[in-house]
Protein: EF_0832/AHA_3913 family protein
Organism: Pelosinus fermentans JBW45
Amino acid sequence: MDTMTIIMESIIIGALVGFGVGAGAARMFHAPNVQGMGAFRTFGELNACEGDPISHFSFGLGFLFNSWASVVGAGAFTQDVEHRIIPNWAAAALLSRNRKVEETLHDPKKMAFAGAAIGVVIVTVMNSTAVAIPASLQVIATKVLVPAANWLINPVMPIVFWMAAIDAGQRSGTWATVLGGLSQLVMGNAVPGIVLGILIGKGVDDSGWNHITKTLVVAVVLLFVLSGFFRGFDAKLLNEFHIGVPAGLIEFHKIFGSVVK
């Protein structure tokens, strides 16, 4: 397949993906009155940047190199392109001209067209680069960029989000610290827990312990319980304390396809 064909197809795919991602991310700010079309983590990460265009841009940039290396080395896009890079860069582009999130980040129409433009650029550049780079350099790029991106994702990004949570207030800092620690133990990355902690803490600060915040806490607890179970965290925890894993627990895991030792 020649380069021009790849570029033309990348423009079309990037525009379609970016349009949907941008509109979906913005619609989540209008739930439950309007059906959202984005991932919960995307919603949390967009909120964590607090409408600052530089924060949105730098957050997306942090995942760019790992995604780029994946395209160059393996020929596949990571989920970070749709979940993190496109929506955050679309938000950064809009917020750089107007800091009012109600008129930019929360507007599905503006986010859709901004996301389409960002998607065209990102998908086209990544795909054309992957084709242009020789196979020998692809291996080198993968070995250099992936470790560097992994260092950025963990531990640099968790530290940045944790500091932001502490700066947001005592309640947000406490929730983020507790949930971030649990997230690191269960999922191997503290960022999801820290983001959820910020959402819970700020939600309670703004609205108190109402039906929405209580539902959010219950949903977070279920998330950690189910995630820990399917990852076999309960069995690993017993092993760390040198306690034998009961045969009944092992069989229960097998029912759901979660094999533990």
User: Anything to note?
Assistant: Residues 98 and 258 are 48 Å apart (CA to CA). The chain is about 75% helix and 0% strand.
